[in-house]
Structures are given as structure tokens and as C-alpha cells.
Task: inverse folding
């Protein structure tokens, strides 16, 4: 029973820290204070350290002998490769979307775009990231492919992290929402060629924003 409780606690702490990283409450290069986590979570050092080691394994944090744990900073090579992989995935997704999307899915995309306008006005980066992520998740579900969802699930958190970094640039959220609105229009027109071309531009713009964020890259 004690082992089960310890495992539950470790995964809970892991989830809380991961959420802070993905939603940019902890930014690349920022030191993660074990002492503050222990105090805020009212727990012992062991589950906090175990959670951080799990995140290190996922390459979201790194541990330096002199500085302790820090949110991982990226190499340009990593950024290029993640976006290259995502472009391949999105092209496959869009092919299935055009083939299988339902009216309910299209209605969900419309609601997402409409709520995105209000979210941007509020200026809450966490809500903006969530709204942007939901748009792509609706597309993934619209493929009606369980194999696709199973295959990309391990990458979703990294995609969301990169998305958040790109959206943190002033003006990026409004630009991205405008692009989502155009993508929705192309989906309704069943224009796969135009949709793939627009998605490629969408990802290229996001990658470009990350490249010039201060303190993000090694």
C-alpha cells in the first residue's frame, strides 16, 4: 500500500511540474527549486526528486552538478527536427480529416475559433495555449484513426510545449488564430492541397518565432 501511495504521489508531482513547463510558468533555462516544490506541495524530497528524474528522462529538464535541475533549453537541431516530424504527421492528419471529418467536428472547430477570439482578449497565455491545442486535437479526433492517436500520443506534450513557446511572442496568438480560421475554411471547402500548403506555412511561422526567442536556445 505504501508503494502504491508513493507511486501516486510521484506521478501527481510529475504532472504538476510538467504542466508548469508546458504552460511556460517554468521557462527554458529556469532553475527548478526542489526546496520550493517541497514547501508548496507539502511533501518530502524523495517524490519531488523522483518526479524530476522522470521529466529528465523525457528531456524536459536537465540536471547540472552545480545548479541542480533546470528546464531544458533547446538546440536549433531539436527545433528543426520536431517541426519536420510534425509537418509529416500533420500532412497525414489532414488527408484523413478531409476524408472523415463530420459536421459535428466542423462545428467543434468553429466553436474553438470563436472562443479563441475571447481568449486572446483576456491575454492569459495558459488559456491561449489550451485553446490552440484543442484546435489541433479536434483535427486529430476528426481523422477517426485510433492508430494515429496511439502513435502520436507520446509527442503531444512536446508539440504543446513548442506551441506555447511560439505563442509567447507578442502578436503570435492573433496571427495563429487567423490561420486556424483560414484552415477551417479550407476544410469546409475540402481543399486538401490548399490545406496542406497552409499548414506548412503555419508551422514554418511557429518555428521561426521560437528561433528568435531570447534564452530558449543553447
Result:
Amino acid at each position: 500500500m505504501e508503494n502504491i501511495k508513493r507511486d501516486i504521489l510521484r506521478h501527481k508531482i510529475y504532472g504538476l511540474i510538467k504542466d508548469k513547463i508546458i504552460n511556460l510558468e517554468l521557462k527554458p533555462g529556469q532553475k527548478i527549486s526542489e526546496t520550493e516544490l517541497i514547501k508548496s506541495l507539502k511533501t518530502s524530497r524523495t517524490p519531488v526528486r523522483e518526479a524530476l528524474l522522470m521529466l529528465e528522462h523525457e528531456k524536459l529538464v536537465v540536471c547540472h552538478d552545480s545548479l541542480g535541475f533546470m528546464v531544458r533549453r533547446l538546440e536549433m537541431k531539436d527545433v528543426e527536427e520536431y517541426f519536420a516530424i510534425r509537418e509529416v504527421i500533420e500532412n497525414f492528419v489532414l488527408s484523413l480529416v478531409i476524408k472523415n471529418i463530420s459536421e459535428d467536428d466542423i462545428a467543434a472547430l468553429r466553436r474553438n475559433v470563436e472562443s479563441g477570439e475571447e481568449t486572446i482578449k483576456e491575454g492569459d497565455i495558459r488559456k491561449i495555449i489550451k485553446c490552440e491545442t484543442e484546435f489541433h486535437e479536434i483535427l486529430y479526433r476528426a481523422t477517426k484513426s485510433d492508430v494515429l492517436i496511439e502513435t502520436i500520443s507520446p509527442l503531444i506534450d512536446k508539440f504543446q510545449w513548442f506551441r506555447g513557446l511560439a505563442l509567447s511572442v507578442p502578436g503570435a496568438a492573433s496571427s495563429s488564430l487567423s490561420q486556424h480560421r483560414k484552415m477551417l475554411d479550407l476544410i469546409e471547402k475540402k481543399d486538401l492541397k490548399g490545406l496542406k500548403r497552409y499548414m506548412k506555412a503555419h508551422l514554418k511561422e511557429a518555428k521561426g518565432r521560437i528561433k528568435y526567442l531570447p534564452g530558449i536556445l543553447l
